[in-house]
Amino acid sequence: MGVSKIILAYSGGLDTSVILKWLKETYRCAVVAFCADIGQGEELSEVAEKARATGADEVYVLDLKEEFVREFVFPMLRANAVYEGSYLLGTSIARPLIAKAQVEVARESRADAVAHGATGKGNDQVRFELTYTALAPDLTIIAPWREWDLAGREDLVAYAERHGVPVPVTKARPYSMDRNLLHLSFEGGILEDPWAEPPTDMFVLTKAPEAAPDMPRYVQINFEGGDPVAVDGERLSPAALLARLNELGGEHGIGRVDLVENRYVGLKSRGVYETPGGTILHAAHRAVESLTLDREVMHLKESLTPRYAELVYYGYWFAPEREALQHLIDDTQKPVTGTVRLKLYKGNVTVVGRKAPKSLYRPDLATFEAGGAYRQADATGFIRLNALRLKIRAQLEGK
After folding, report:
1. 160 in a domain, yes or no?
2. Residues of the domain holding 206
3. 363 located within any domain
4. Are 349 and 249 members of one domain?
């Protein structure tokens, strides 16, 4: 069918195992299994063995955890991106990195096609394919779920048995999971009923708030130029810093979200997420910005944040509009250096202290005590001028 080598984004699960065999059978060419380690916690040596056992001609396993946090999570954090008020975009931000690395493997191995295991109903197919197209428009894109006649899990298992594909022996879960260093997501199965409460034993990264310690945990986070660099005075690499906060947040039940979101393809979807470290960083970053950003710069940035989050969710990480927004956002972050003290307690993150070397907060102006530098009488003309249009309108309406 016109291709000589395919790079498959491979996880070792049922779907991509079947896809690997299906690609070999359908396209009759070399298939390379590519797996990105972005903190999913799986035993990646076993993933490589599974790929070879299923027929992969080559296997690439790349450790991308530091790049993931430094080049993808932190830029998104600088934007305070949240989709539809709740979702911290843990899955969304991982896909462009995986697809980018997949393209790089394709170039290195002289492949002419890339393939993914995303279904035709979800967002991931869009995220993968927009990235492929933005970075390597010459590569052929293969989306098996949109091409084959396998309808669901039973068909996949039957195909695997017919073709000798080793089916992963795992306890069947009544929902699907996707994990990386930023979050863990759950959807499908029993969660498709938006009235049904998630089972208590489902969560992995976080304790239930009611089971969290009865004593709060205080944590300090240092920021430089909008990026977190240290936890409790210890400088850490991006991935190590996020991992540390995942542990602290998880212990105190931080970062659980249950929402119904609007997928890009037009469907609504119920998702449950655990984002302990990301939730802490989001609160901490906004606290440093509250001291260091000019009011109009902050308001302009906040007006653009929903659009930025939408671009990440939809898959336009490598689009010119996201890159343009990023340049503006990063320019606002130059003064965002400081320290935040937070209290973690029973599922809540509370900012209890913040300081910054270039703080715009002036106690001598803000004080309610007598003798401050602010002249209260100056407010008279300010209010009169700003009220002028309201006064004219009221007079015209005869009030």
Report:
1. yes
2. 177-293+335-355
3. no
4. yes
Of the candidate ranges 51-60, 119-128, 145-154, the one whose mean pLDDT is the lowest? 145-154
Q: What is the mean pLDDT of the chain?
A: 95
Region of 8 please: left (phi>0), alpha (psi -120 to 50) or beta. Answer: beta
Q: Kindly name the residue from 28, 176, 294, 384 that is annotated as catalytic.
A: 176
- Report d(CA 111, CA 57) in Å as an integer: 12
How many structural domains does the chain have? 3
The active-site residue, picked from 17, 92, 95, 179, is 95
Catalytic residue among 17, 124, 179, 354: 124
User: Does 190 lie in the same domain as 238?
Assistant: yes
39 and 121 in a common domain: yes
| Known catalytic residue at 193 | no
Residue-level pLDDT at 370: 65
| Structure confidence at residue 30 as a pLDDT band (50, 70, 90) | very high
Whether residues 121 and 162 fall in one domain: yes
pTM: 0.95
Give the confidence band of 147 by pLDDT, cuts at 50, 70, 90: very high
288 neighbors 340 (Cβ within 8 angstroms): yes
Give the C-alpha separation, 356 to 288, whole Å: 7
Name the E strands within the chain: 5-9, 30-37, 58-63, 113-115, 140-142, 176-179, 184-187, 217-224, 227-231, 234-235, 256-262, 268-274, 338-345, 348-355
For residue range 245-275, what is the model confidence (pLDDT) as tens digits? 999 999 999 999 999 999 999 999 999 999 9
Same domain, 195 and 109: no
Per the annotation, the verdict on 15 as an active-site residue is yes
Query: Token pair 């947040």 is at which residue?
Result: 249
CB 294 within 8 A of CB 333: no
